[in-house]
Amino acid sequence: MRITLILAILQGCVGVDEDEAPAVLMYIYLLFQLCCCVGVDEDEAPAVLICVGVDEDEAPAVLMYICVFQLCCCVGVDEDEAPAVLMYICVFQLCCCVGVDEDEAPAVLMYICVFQLCCCVGVDEDEAPAVLMYICVFQLCCCSSCVGVDEDEAPDIDIYHCPNCEKTDGKSTMKNKKRNKQDTGQSGDIRAVQNGSQVFIKELRSRTFPSSEDVVVKLNGSQLTMDYLEEVGFNEPILVLKKDGLGMSMPAPTFYINDVENHVGPDVGVDVIDVTKQTDSKMKLKEFVDYYYSTSRKKVLNIINLEFSDKRMDSIVESPQIVRRLSWVENYWPDDALLGKPKVTKYCLIGVKDSYTDFHIECGGASVWYHVLKGEKIFFLIKPTSANLSLYERWRSSANHTEMFFADQVDKCYKCTLKQGQTLFIPSGWINAVLTPVDTLAFSGHFVHNLSVEMQMRAYEVEKRLKVNCLTPFPNFETACWYVGRHLLERFKVVYSVCPSYGLLSR
């Protein structure tokens, strides 16, 4: 990203020909590496330059000639100004690469800029703007906000024009990205839309989808029993409008984000998703809470994997009774096992408005339950047919899958809105995405069970082939399968001891 921005500046503002820009950049970088970052002094330069094919006797002259020639001839710097510009670029590159923290970069940049221009380099105040033009390279690399370039827009810039150049040359030109007609239903040169971006969210909100009434079963909490599932199966999502009868416990309606911090711990590290970029990073819970309550949120951040079964909040949240009855982890994992019990049963989800999680299958082919304590979530549900699973695997393995809306590739994608106080159960293998239209606090949990063994195995095989790093993994899934197998073997032994002929009769 930074290299393309530097080239854009060299072409747009500095006036370097498109074909020469890469060479100019390479020579400037070479000088910087030798003089500033690597710490090569004048005596050592020949030996270093020999590595790139320069004769030992000619090395010092060649190095200086390259630097001055490129600045004077290719970039258009006056011969008398070349040393000053060269020195200044090195200073700023040193600031960039030595490890100045991104948040501190603007202050460091301003200090070095004023000091070097006025004291060390000897640049007259009237000449400073011209010299600073060459330092746009550093500005875009380390502090894009200083030149008015949004961090998310930076990769899309083809030729950059600073505010002064805009008066004569117009605004910066953007790159065109081609999207495959098969992927998007469109053809021609259009800018790719990043899943999770503001443009994407706006488009998603405006689209229509088939009603989930066709696939989602609505039940009362007391109706969701083992007898019901064993008779009907658990192959379609189940929506329970009120938690009464589910046998689960939730905090009081007044419970909110600051209470989560108090019950989990302010210094607990959490994985936070930057929704616009669809990337994740680490921060302390108290830092996220500060962001959540801030009056101006510059980013859309989302927490989806705060597992708290070993925290104080565990005592006030209990999963639905049917989940505890079905769960392999709850029922078959030995308390004295060498491997710790997978922590997948209780998640706290904190999403701000416009949070979005792209299409995925739960790790280990697990089923999942969601309960919205405050706010609302919108689920986009796709059946796990053989065709859809194959399409999903192809889409997920594509290098630009974050620029393709997977629902466009399947026959039907159903929209299901989960409102405050409601609970949703999603079966194994269902491909789903989640939009958070308002600030939301929700709870969820994953569980594998006897009713979906085949689908769990199919989904797990897809997961292994894709080799995707998941923020909500199912640790030791294969070990859980072995414990279930051992349980079944013990049951068969008991049956056989009571009725030895059972094995023959069952053939």
Automatic annotation (TrEMBL):
<keyword id="KW-0805">Transcription regulation</keyword>
<keyword id="KW-0732">Signal</keyword>
<dbReference type="Pfam" id="PF02373">
    <property type="entry name" value="JmjC"/>
</dbReference>
<protein>
    <submittedName>
        <fullName>Lysine-specific demethylase phf2-like</fullName>
    </submittedName>
</protein>
<keyword id="KW-0804">Transcription</keyword>
<dbReference type="InterPro" id="IPR003347">
    <property type="entry name" value="JmjC_dom"/>
</dbReference>
<dbReference type="GO" id="GO:0046872">
    <property type="term" value="F:metal ion binding"/>
</dbReference>
<feature type="signal peptide">
    <location>
        <begin position="1"/>
        <end position="15"/>
    </location>
</feature>
<dbReference type="GO" id="GO:0005730">
    <property type="term" value="C:nucleolus"/>
</dbReference>
<dbReference type="InterPro" id="IPR013083">
    <property type="entry name" value="Znf_RING/FYVE/PHD"/>
</dbReference>
<feature type="domain" description="JmjC">
    <location>
        <begin position="308"/>
        <end position="464"/>
    </location>
</feature>
<keyword id="KW-0560">Oxidoreductase</keyword>
<keyword id="KW-0539">Nucleus</keyword>
<dbReference type="GO" id="GO:0006325">
    <property type="term" value="P:chromatin organization"/>
</dbReference>
<dbReference type="InterPro" id="IPR041070">
    <property type="entry name" value="JHD"/>
</dbReference>
<dbReference type="InterPro" id="IPR050690">
    <property type="entry name" value="JHDM1_Histone_Demethylase"/>
</dbReference>
<keyword id="KW-0156">Chromatin regulator</keyword>
<dbReference type="GO" id="GO:0051213">
    <property type="term" value="F:dioxygenase activity"/>
</dbReference>
<keyword id="KW-0223">Dioxygenase</keyword>
<keyword id="KW-0479">Metal-binding</keyword>
<dbReference type="Pfam" id="PF17811">
    <property type="entry name" value="JHD"/>
</dbReference>
<keyword id="KW-0408">Iron</keyword>
<keyword id="KW-0010">Activator</keyword>
